[in-house]
């Protein structure tokens, strides 16, 4: 993801700013938690006492729907850390080009005491999460409920490729203890030792460490920095003073706020240094935006709604893999693996805009949405049941 030249962005914004009138209100729609935006809001209103920031907090999918359907109150600014959600809104010409004001990165995050009890080494790459010792010890948030975690799933799909990416996620599902409704739930679950680890954004680790919790982390390798962005909406009654808040975020004062304990984001300057030292792999936010709803719906059918079946299959799989290694057995296991991990649509089909329209969250109770997802569920269940039955021939006893 290219870094926005700070000086150019700042000059452009300053040129767009008008002198604020007394008691103006700027409506900001955000997916950031209150703990993040409150110190920034307070600092801005102290610097510009004639402007009040009215901040509305919603989950990323709800932010998209709010803007797409022009719900009240009409937002002047969109403030999120989901580049593909921003790309979706920009593609629909609902917002101006997003401005990056900070960065985050994905990390593997764990409770040190619980990891030590398992006797497992700390994870350093995605494949490490598939080790049998992590059975029911990992949590992840649902991409349909968390825009940040949608990025995480897309990173896996784009790095591994469509088929291999979903195969990896299926196998990861065998080690999941739960799928949380929000990414914050992974942080809280690790801290309270409900499970051992999970992939999260780095500020969850830093805030937990600042609170004195015995936690550890490892940056997820070959993963791009996550852009925290803000954008002007395009509705006709937008407050003309709105660019002033963007300019504040890019200013020295705004960048300094990123180091506050409750904010915990990487500044533009630090992000530039990280990118220069560790070049980010290519990530296509527009591809992610094109198949946004299809990926979310497929994840729920493949992972969220099938944890028990995945746990049973992959636990049995690991036992057999340990005991069987001859070429004939390997060929049969390869066929079973393919049957268990094949998803019902191709990458090209997932990018179909008609399909993604059908799978929009606002249509989840319609017959067309139910027909598509129920068809996927039936196909996935049939494949996994057949694969599980095939494994029984190797183990000599039915899986539980």
UniProtKB/TrEMBL annotation:
Keywords: Signal. It comes from the Bacteria. GO terms for cellular component: outer membrane-bounded periplasmic space. The keyword Signal applies. The keyword Secreted does not apply. Gene3D superfamilies: Periplasmic binding protein-like II. This is Phosphoglycerate transport regulatory protein pgtC. It comes from Grimontia hollisae.
């Amino acid at each position: 993801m290219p870094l926005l030249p700070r000086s150019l962005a700042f000059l452009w914004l300053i040129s767009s700013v008008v002198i604020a009138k007394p008691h103006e209100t700027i409506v900001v729609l955000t997916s950031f938690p209150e703990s993040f935006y409150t110190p920034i809001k307070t600092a801005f209103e102290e610097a510009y006492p004639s402007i009040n920031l009215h901040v509305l907090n919603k989950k990323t999918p709800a932010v998209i729907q709010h803007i797409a359907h022009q719900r009240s109150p009409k937002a002047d600014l969109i403030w999120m850390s989901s580049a593909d959600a921003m790309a979706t809104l920009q593609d629909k010409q609902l917002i101006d080009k997003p401005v990056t004001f900070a960065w985050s990165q994905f990390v593997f995050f764990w409770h040190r005491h619980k990891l030590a009890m398992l006797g497992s080494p700390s994870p350093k790459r995605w494949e490490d999460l598939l080790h049998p010792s992590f059975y029911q010890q990992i949590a992840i948030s649902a991409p349909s409920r968390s825009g940040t975690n949608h990025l995480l799933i897309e990173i896996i799909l784009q790095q591994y490729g469509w088929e291999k990416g979903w195969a990896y996620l299926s196998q990861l599902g065998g080690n999941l203890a739960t799928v949380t409704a929000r990414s914050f739930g992974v942080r809280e679950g690790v801290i309270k030792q409900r499970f051992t680890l999970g992939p999260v954004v780095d500020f969850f680790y830093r805030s937990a460490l600042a609170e004195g919790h015995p936690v550890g982390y490892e940056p997820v390798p070959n993963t791009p920095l996550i852009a925290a962005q803000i954008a002007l909406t395009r509705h006709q009654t937008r407050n003309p003073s709105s660019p002033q808040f963007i300019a504040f975020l890019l200013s020295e004062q705004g960048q300094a706020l990123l180091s506050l304990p409750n904010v915990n984001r990487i500044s533009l300057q630090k992000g530039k240094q990280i990118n220069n030292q560790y070049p980010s792999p290519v990530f296509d936010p527009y591809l992610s935006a094109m198949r946004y709803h299809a990926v979310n719906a497929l994840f729920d059918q493949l992972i969220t709604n099938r944890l028990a079946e995945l746990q049973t299959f992959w636990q049995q799989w690991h036992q057999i893999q340990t005991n069987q290694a001859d070429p004939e057995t390997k060929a049969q296991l390869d066929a079973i693996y393919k049957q268990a991990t094949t998803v019902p649509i191709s990458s090209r089909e997932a990018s179909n805009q008609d399909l993604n329209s059908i799978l929009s969250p606002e249509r989840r109770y319609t017959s067309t949405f139910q027909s598509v997802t129920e068809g996927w569920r039936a196909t996935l269940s049939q494949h996994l049941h057949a694969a599980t039955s095939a494994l029984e021939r190797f183990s000599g006893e039915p899986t539980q």
